[in-house]
Design brief:
Layout lengths: L4 E6 L5 H15 L4 E4 L19 E4 L4 H9 L4 E3 L16 H14 L4 E7 L3 H16 L4 E6 L8 H16 L4 E5 L2 H14 L7 E6 L3 H4 L7 E4 L2 H17 L14 E3 L12 H13 L7 H8 L3 H12 L3 H19 L5 H7 L5 H12 L3 H9 L1
Parallel strand pairs: 1-2, 1-3, 3-4, 5-6, 5-7, 7-8, 8-9
Antiparallel strand pairs: 9-10
């Protein structure tokens, strides 16, 4: 066996980063690398600032400040950054596609019928800027805009800042038009919005629908109402990060950073389970569609019969409220369900995924996937979990 290599994990433990570590371990196991991992003793986090004279072999780090970036540049040990907090870092990075996360968030809220939007982000933090840009870019395609509230990050702030931020956030939310769809830079900030709504008497999701980022189960799944979130592909990010570090440690040439890792999906929970449409007939039609879209024989005609409306009225109502036809909306929702099942149920046959997503056959699902994503369902599953 080769001599062990010491790899420092210079980022906080817990939450979504545990999945990133699983990706690192998977790559090392697949390549039969004899990597040993160095973490903090009691604090569960090491900064690159503490590794200036460390005699190890490689570092995986979250570089969040200019001081950390300068230190990373001076290190003699190969290092790969996993954070998107700063632009144009002097060391190789493997990061998630923050712009794509914003696009997904906007698409989800638009599909719920919202016309008023807002973004709650962080000042002078690159990943917040990118997520906001994706959110706003997608909204512009429907001629929508978004209000913004940018808070100071808490990397080095005292707890008292949270109190003033909460008061300002609550007042900002009260003053915005309702119903409102709001996208938060993280699940932690989404939880803060939820608290502000509760303190201000705003109903979630009826008046304010909240969408976070990261899909942290501790935050999203253990609060009332539960929080919808954009799920990151942390496992794939960890795998690609380890792959990049391995190349650097071997002295292989690396040209540019890998492509950003796309998000997985929207994980919908109670905070966006609503439809911001004023017409009760359209609201009933949307609820009926979501309850039955997994049935392969389910069609637009079934919706018109259930809602007691004409096909022409339904077409007009969907275009006016959602910006697309009933068929386009149904097709997109079925595709989103198929994508989720492909990742969550890796051993389920493709034809079964098709049936459970409302497609008549595996062939129809494959054709639709190819048209929208340029790949087959099997390729999508492999890329998402590779």
């Amino acid at each position: 066996m080769t001599q062990p290599k010491d790899i420092a994990l210079a980022f906080p433990r817990g939450g979504h980063l545990e999945l990133l570590i699983e990706g690192v371990l998977s790559y090392a196991d697949e390549k039969q690398l004899n990597w040993c991992y160095i973490t903090a003793l009691e604090s569960h986090v090491i900064s690159v600032l503490e590794l200036a004279n460390w005699p190890g072999h490689g570092i995986l780090a979250a570089i969040n400040t200019e001081e950390e970036a300068a230190c990373a540049k001076s290190l003699k040990v190969p290092i790969v950054n996993i954070s998107s907090a700063l632009p144009d870092l002097p060391v190789p990075s493997c990061i998630i596609d923050n712009h794509a996360m914003g696009v997904l968030a906007a698409d989800h809220l638009i599909s719920k019928g919202f016309r008023s939007f807002a973004y709650y982000g962080l000042k002078d933090v690159e990943y917040s800027r990118q997520r906001q840009a994706g959110f706003v870019d997608k909204l512009k395609t429907g001629e929508f805009t978004a209000d913004e509230f940018l808070a100071y990050p808490t990397y080095a702030h005292e707890a008292s800042d949270w109190i003033s931020q909460n008061h300002e956030l609550a007042q900002w939310l009260v003053d915005l038009p309702k119903p409102l769809g709001i996208f938060a830079v993280s699940d932690y900030r989404a939880r803060q919005i939820l608290d502000a709504c509760r303190n201000s008497g705003l109903r979630v999701p009826e008046e304010v629908a909240i969408l976070g980022t990261g899909n942290e189960d501790l935050v999203c799944g253990h609060v009332v109402p539960t929080l919808t979130s954009v799920a990151r592909n942390n496992f794939l990010q960890g795998y690609r990060t380890a792959e990049l570090l391995d190349k650097l440690m071997r002295g292989e040439p690396v040209q540019g950073d890998p492509l950003p890792i796309p998000p997985l999906e929207i994980v919908e929970r109670d905070s966006t389970r609503t439809f911001a449409v004023s017409d009760s007939r359209l609201r009933d039609a949307l609820e009926y569609l979501h309850e039955n879209m997994h049935e392969p024989l389910f069609s637009i005609d079934d919706i018109t019969r259930q809602a007691s409306v004409s096909r022409r009225w339904l077409e007009y109502a969907f275009r006016d409220a959602l910006g697309e036809t009933p068929y386009q909306y149904l097709r997109r929702q079925r595709l989103a369900r198929a994508r989720r099942l492909l990742v969550e149920e890796p051993k389920t046959k493709i034809y079964k995924i098709a049936q459970c997503s409302g497609f008549s056959s595996a062939k129809q699902l494959a054709m639709t996937f190819q048209q929208d994503f340029g790949m087959s369902p099997r390729e999508y599953r492999r890329i998402s979990k590779s």
